[in-house]
Amino acid sequence: MKTMETFSKIKDVKKARIGLYSAGLHTYWGQFAGLLDCLKEYNAYIEKRLSEFGEVYNFGIVDTEDKGREAGEYFNRENVDIVFSHAATYYTSSCVLPVHQINKAPAIILNLQPTPEMAYESTGTDRWLAQCVGCSIPEISNAMNRARMPFRVVNGLLGLDYTPSFAKADENTKDRPEAIKAWNEIADWCMAATVKRTLTHARFGFLGGYYSGMLDMYSDLTMLQAQTGLDVEILEMSDLDAYLKEVTDVDEARMLETINRFFEISGDSPSDPIAKAPTEDQLKWSARVACAQEKMVRDRNLDSVSYYYHGNNDHFEDVQSGFIVGFSLLNAQGIACSGEGDIKTALAMKIADICGKGGSFCEIVAADFNRNTMILGHDGPFHIAISNRKPLLRGMGVYHGKRGSGVSVEAKVRPGAVTTLGVTQTGDGRLKFNISEGEAIEAPILLNGNTSTHIRFDCPPAEYMDKWFAEAPTHHLALSVGHNAGLFKKIANLMDIPCAVF
Prior knowledge:
Shape: elongated
CATH class of the largest domain: Alpha Beta
Number of strands: 20
Largest sheet: 6 strands, antiparallel, barrel
Helix content: 25-40%
Distance between the termini: 35 Å
Number of helices: 16
CATH architecture of the largest domain: 3-Layer(aba) Sandwich
Strand order of the largest sheet: 12-13-18-17-16-19
CATH superfamily of the largest domain: L-fucose Isomerase, Chain A, domain 2
Structural class: alpha/beta
Number of domains: 2
Radius of gyration: 26 Å
Strand content: 15-25%
């Protein structure tokens, strides 16, 4: 097996702007010397950990209603994407409700106890107050619910990697499962905020049109911007052709080198007569078109391209014949590219890629009832970064169901945990996420120039399809590596998008 290489990203992910404050009760500070400094140390530790996930804006201690209002204004000035409200001790809900009435960023309440158990025989009220962090959670939950403000709670241990000098018990809990789980949840919430910020600054290209008659593909582009913040730029084939005319022989030669590094060039398929070894002319044309595709993405500052062109024995049909290789290369560079004009699935692919989970363009190929697997794949652009080996390039005499011929990618996702993310549009005009987790397994695939992967879900194929189809999905989806349902649900939550997990 040849060594896989990786691409650098064309555009950087926009890290989340993270707000943080610790909540307490000002009455305690004059009663118990050292308590406030103790809670500030916990606050500083949380800031340090959060800085791994984005830019942190730490207000410090909120212990009165006035401080709550100041914190809300502070977070507004800093344009934060998410606010972590650390329950440092008991506090009255009236202290912190103003924070979130003024600042509308999603609120995550942190109920992180510093130690698994208190040193019962030596702990006084002062140090007890540093441990009773769960005491206020029901109160603030009730207050926020009555104020019709959404909230989320992370429960567990603080996860310190040392025991502070003021502690009465062992507070080094970084390896405890309650701390690991809590910080994994926090990391997911920060990633969800990163996705939301990145999409709000993203530009999705829509090149050509939809595959005619695929009614589930058709989308309201204004609806997409309204619900995600992304901008959609309508592109014509003539726009791409203008970049194609700028491609030089030197550009073509460099792209051919890239193609030969990242792909294996196949021979004729032993089973499919339309899948042949790609010709030298087909490879050169794919390389030239790939140069134009990259030039367009960089010049138009695109984060994604959804595309389809039917053609009628014209020049643009020749152009689209070279699409799959270049768009597969762009996928590996963080530019989500989806075929058949499916911009909703481009959104799913982009979300998975921002999270570092891949995101390959897929649909149902078939069920394998003997192996209890669903086979997912497509003839369109593949995400090379999650391949089990170097993908093959095959020359296709016919693009089935489409006009023209050209070079296609044959590959499958590496074995292990995977998650599907489908984005559909419902009858009321809302986006919706459909999510399922499974395991990619090593199994035979067709040698026909398409990507294909066997996925084993928690239930047999027929039962899985019962659940999937009941959610009225778009027939395409993004296939990501890892079990990411919890993360994708949090992204849906922050973006106010309904989701189904099955």
